[in-house]
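Deliverable D4.2, example record:
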Amino acid sequence: MTHDVFLYDAVRTPFGKYGGALSGCRPDDLAALVVRSLVGRNPSLDPARIDEVVFGNANGAGEDNRNVARMAGLLAGVPVSVPAVTVNRLCGSSLEATITAARQIALGESDVVLAGGVESMSRAPWVLPKPERAFPAGDARLVSTALGWRLVNPAMATPWTVSLGEATERLREREGVSREDQDAFALRSHQAATAAWDSGFYAGQVVDVPGVDLARDEPIRPTTLDALAALPPVFRPDGTVTAGNASPLSDGASAALLGSAGAEAMLGRAPLARVAAWGVAAGEPQYFGIAPVAAAHQALRRAGITWSDITAVELNEAFAAQSLACVRAWDIDPAIVNRHGGAIALGHPLGASGTRIIATLAHTLRAAGGRWGLAAICVGVGQGLAVVLENAGA
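Output generated by the structure prediction step:
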C-alpha cells in the first residue's frame, strides 16, 4: 500500500551568475538559508517532526563536502535529531532529492521531508590529484570541478566523454535544430523570465540572501535576436551553441516541504500539488539532452495520464538545442513550456535546479488553473528525470 505525497511549500534564493553576487557565499550557507527560511515560514511545524532532510548537490568537492544536507540542517538550527542525506544525480540532483523524499512518504516511512539542493559553481574548487608514486619529477595539473568531466577514466568510451556543449552540438545535428531556433528559444526564456519577475510571479518563492544586493535572478538580461545571433559558437568553430543559447554557470539553493496527507495538520497549510508520479531514463551519454523524453513518458504512464492532460511543462533549459529536441519529440504545444522563463535566463546551479522547476510548476498550475503538469530535467552522462504534479486546488 502506498500513500499520497504532496508538495506543501518551496523557496529558493535568487540565482547568481558565475563570479557574481552570490560568489562570496558558501554553498552550505546558501543551503542553510533555504532550510531556515522554509521552516520559518511554516511556524506551525515543529522542526523536530521533520523526518529527514534530503539535498541534492552535483559537486561536493569543496565547501559543500561532508554531506551538505546535514551541514545545512545543523547550520539552520534544525534539531540534531533530524537525519540528513545528500544525493548526487548531477544536474538532476534536487529533483532526485524530491523523488527520494516522495518515495519515503509514499511508503509510509515519513510524514514530512525537506528536500532541496544547492550549488556554488563559482566556489567549486580546483583539485590536485595525488601522484601515483612518491617524488614525481613532472609537473602537476589543477583540475576545475565547476562543470563536466574531470579525471576521466581512460577505459571510458571516447564518445561518452565529450563536453556537454559538444554533446549538444551532436544532438542538434541529429535532431535538425537550427541556430535560429535556438536563439529564438533563448530570447523567449529571457522575455518570459523578465515578465514573470515584473508581474510578481516569483515574489513569494524567492528569499533574500542576507548581505547580498540581489533582488532577482542575476543572469536575466535584456537581449535581442540580433544580439544573440552575433555571439560566436563556443564548442566548434562552425557550431551553433553559444553563451546566449545555453544556461550559464550559476550559484544558488532551493528547498521544498513534502508531506503526507496528514502533514497538512502539522503544517497548518493546504498543499500546493500532489506528486503523482515520477520517471527516470538513461541512454547514450553523448546524447544526454534527449533523455528527459523517455523519463517523461514513463512518468505519464505511471500517473495514468497522457500528454493531452498536461497543461504546463517545466523543462530545465540546459541548452536551447536539447530543450527544443525534447519539446519536438513530445509533440506538445511549445507555449505550455516554461511560461515564466527557464534556466537560460534564470540560471542553472546544478544541484538546485530540480527543486526550482518543481516549485515553478506547482505555482504555474495554481496561477493558470490547470490540473496536470510535468517537470523534467536532463542529466549529464546520459540520464533524464521527470515528475508529474497534480494541482491540489484544481
